[in-house]
């Protein structure tokens, strides 16, 4: 999916869009004329001209269909030979078409719809949303055509960004038809829901002050148990490349026992044997902070850190959960809980998050979400992320092709940067490090900071090779992406 838009991008659900329409001072007929005009302009671009081209419009019974009919008339005036059919009509198989305009249903789709068969490999322009796609979730509500392009009105709709949306909507254009969405969904940091863009990174990425010292952006990573040291190393490398001034790593204790590394060596608890940590990393034993069980009972020395990242190669078990819960209570710094820290905590972990005053960030993939919440996220990822944020009082970052970041106050940010390159082991550890660095550097709106960090992470991946991309390639690309995006 490509975006033709830059800057703060509101994202609306169909219900919110309906409320915007209802509150509009202009007559629907005027809005339909503008929407139809925008569709016609976009169609002419796809057709590469007007005179002699052939287009077919599938027009439904509502306003989406009305947009299509207006576009059909405007295209005829430009010499395009246009045919129109109802949403249920078949398209003549022998029609040598240059374009099909899908104006069957938009935000008003209320039951499954399967469009007629397309005559061959003809490009499709979808009006507002491909018909048969749920405008909120991007899930199937029928069997939509795969559009070459989608022209949507006033603002992006969440269904274009989530679920099957990115795969089925093609290139997305937002047409201004004179409607303001501000009254319904707010502006700036207060926007209910927004897509993060490159412009947002430039505006919001926290910068180091000219008189900064290293402790002003220190990150403390707790992870890298024997056999899993690579995870903490990726997080540490990423935090450094994203701008952390000081990176501390502490392995979790393996109290009263010795454990085996994956190459079969016995190791003592609390160390990082053979960890390929960046040379700048400071390794500190957790036991040195005074706990009888090897986990800290005070973090006085570490209160100087701006953010903790807990979970990357942490291992699981009751002792680990006890330790994480204690750290959450002890530290006044921002905390990112990732990977193993999310695996088995459930209600106890969520309660511990809810009691914190400082920022807490939870970064689950779907399996970790289920472990935390006792149920899978389901199709409605906006609602799933919001439920986790509300339950935990934390910022909930739900990983996926489009990352959904929700705050306990109901605001949501989306990032669709990155692609399947990121579907490889260790990229989540890198993301945790980038978020940790961003939180340690900044004092801005935490939701924006976390979402912008996810966007940087996705953008960085696009600088890597399409084949054979490894998480270890990513931290350096994060540094390069930040150089590009933050000026
Ligand atoms: N502000 C804007 O963005 C504007 C949007 N416009 C366009 O209007 C549609 C929304 O219009 P609405 O009439 O509410 O909905 P639809 O056109 O999607 O269709 C509703 C219509 O269809 C019936 N229906 C729903 N599902 C099915 C189905 N599977 N089979 C048969 N019939 C179905 C339903 O009962 C209704 O009767 C928006 O997407 C924009 O394209 C305006 O043009 C300008 C302002």
TrEMBL record:
Give the matching Gene3D superfamilies.
3.40.1190.20, YjeF N-terminal domain
- YjeF C-terminal domain residues: 197-485
Matching InterPro entries, A to Z? Carbohydrate_kinase_pred_CS, CARKD, Nnr, Ribokinase-like, YjeF_N_dom, YjeF_N_dom_sf
What PANTHER family does the record tag this protein with? ATP-DEPENDENT (S)-NAD(P)H-HYDRATE DEHYDRATASE, ATP-DEPENDENT (S)-NAD(P)H-HYDRATE DEHYDRATASE FAMILY MEMBER
Q: What does the function comment of this entry state?
A: Bifunctional enzyme that catalyzes the epimerization of the S- and R-forms of NAD(P)HX and the dehydration of the S-form of NAD(P)HX at the expense of ADP, which is converted to AMP. This allows the repair of both epimers of NAD(P)HX, a damaged form of NAD(P)H that is a result of enzymatic or heat-dependent hydration.
Instruction: Tell me what organism the protein belongs to.
Output: Candidatus Neomicrothrix parvicella RN1
Per UniProt, which keywords does this protein have?
A: ATP-binding, Isomerase, Lyase, Metal-binding, Multifunctional enzyme, NAD, NADP, Nucleotide-binding, Potassium
Oligomeric form and interacting partners = Homotetramer.
Q: What residues does AMP bind to? A: 399-403, 428
The answer to whether UniProt assigns keyword Nucleus to this entry is: no
In alphabetical order, the GO MF annotations are: ADP-dependent NAD(P)H-hydrate dehydratase activity; ATP binding; metal ion binding; NAD(P)HX epimerase activity
TM ranges are none
Question: Which reaction is the catalytic activity of this chain?
Answer: (6R)-NADHX = (6S)-NADHX; (6S)-NADPHX + ADP = AMP + phosphate + NADPH + H(+); (6S)-NADHX + ADP = AMP + phosphate + NADH + H(+); (6R)-NADPHX = (6S)-NADPHX
**Positions of the YjeF N-terminal domain:** 17-185
Cofactor(s) for this UniProt protein? K(+); Mg(2+)
The entry's family comment says:
In the N-terminal section; belongs to the NnrE/AIBP family.
- Pfam families xref list: Carb_kinase, YjeF_N
The superkingdom of the source organism is Bacteria
Q: What is this protein called?
A: ADP-dependent (S)-NAD(P)H-hydrate dehydratase
Q: How is the cofactor bound?
A: Binds 1 potassium ion per subunit.
| GO biological process terms held by the UniProt record | metabolite repair; nicotinamide nucleotide metabolic process
Q: Which gene encodes it?
A: nnrD
State where (6S)-NADPHX binds: 231, 313, 365, 429
Query: Lyase: present as a keyword of the record?
Result: yes
Look up the EC number in the record and give it.
Answer: 4.2.1.136
């Amino acid at each position: 999916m490509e975006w033709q838009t830059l800057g703060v991008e509101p994202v609306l659900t169909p219900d919110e869009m309906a409320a915007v329409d209802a509150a509009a001072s202009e007559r629907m007929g005027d809005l339909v004329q503008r929407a139809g005009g925008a569709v016609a302009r976009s169609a002419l671009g796809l057709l590469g001209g007007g005179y002699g081209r052939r287009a077919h419009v599938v027009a439904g019974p509502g306003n989406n269909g009305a947009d299509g009919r207006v576009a059909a008339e405007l295209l005829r005036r430009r010499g395009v030979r246009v045919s129109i059919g109802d949403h249920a009509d078949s398209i003549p198989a022998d029609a040598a078409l240059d374009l099909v305009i899908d104006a069957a249903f938009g935000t008003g789709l209320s039951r499954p719809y399967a469009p007629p068969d397309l005559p061959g490999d003809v490009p499709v322009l979808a009006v507002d949303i491909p018909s048969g796609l749920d405008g909120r979730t991007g899930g199937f509500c029928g069997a939509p055509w795969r559009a070459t392009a989608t022209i949507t009105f006033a603002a992006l709709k969440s269904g274009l960004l989530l679920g099957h949306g990115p795969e089925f909507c093609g290139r997305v254009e937002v047409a201004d038809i004179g409607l303001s969405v501000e009254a319904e969904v707010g502006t700036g940091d207060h926007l209910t829901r927004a897509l993060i863009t490159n412009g947002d990174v430039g505006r919001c990425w926290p910068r180091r002050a000219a008189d900064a010292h290293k402790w002003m952006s220190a990150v403390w990573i707790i992870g890298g148990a024997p056999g899993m040291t690579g995870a903490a190393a990726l997080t540490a490398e990423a935090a450094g490349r994203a701008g952390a001034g000081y990176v501390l790593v502490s392995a979790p204790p393996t109290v009263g026992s010795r454990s085996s590394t994956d190459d079969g060596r016995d190791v003592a608890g609390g160390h990082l044997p053979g960890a390929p940590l960046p040379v700048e990393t400071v390794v500190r034993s957790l036991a040195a902070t005074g706990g009888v069980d090897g986990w800290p009972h005070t973090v006085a020395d570490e209160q100087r850190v701006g953010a903790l990242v807990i979970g990357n190669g942490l291992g699981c078990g009751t002792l680990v959960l006890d330790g994480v819960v204690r750290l959450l209570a002890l530290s006044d710094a921002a905390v990112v809980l990732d990977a193993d820290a999310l695996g088995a905590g459930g209600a106890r972990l969520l309660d511990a998050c809810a009691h914190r005053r400082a920022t807490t960030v939870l970064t689950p993939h779907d399996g970790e979400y289920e472990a935390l919440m006792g149920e899978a996220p389901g199709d409605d990822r906006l609602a799933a992320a919001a439920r986790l944020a509300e339950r935990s009082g934390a910022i909930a970052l739900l990983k996926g092709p489009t990352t959904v970041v929700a705050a306990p106050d109901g605001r949501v940010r989306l990032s669709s940067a990155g692609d399947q390159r990121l579907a490889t082991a260790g990229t989540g550890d890198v993301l945790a490090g980038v978020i940790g660095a961003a939180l340690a550097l900044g004092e801005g709106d935490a939701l924006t900071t976390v979402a912008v960090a996810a966007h940087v992470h996705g953008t960085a991946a696009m600088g890597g090779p399409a084949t054979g991309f490894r998480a270890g390639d990513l931290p350096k690309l994060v540094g390069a992406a930040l150089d590009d995006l933050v000026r």
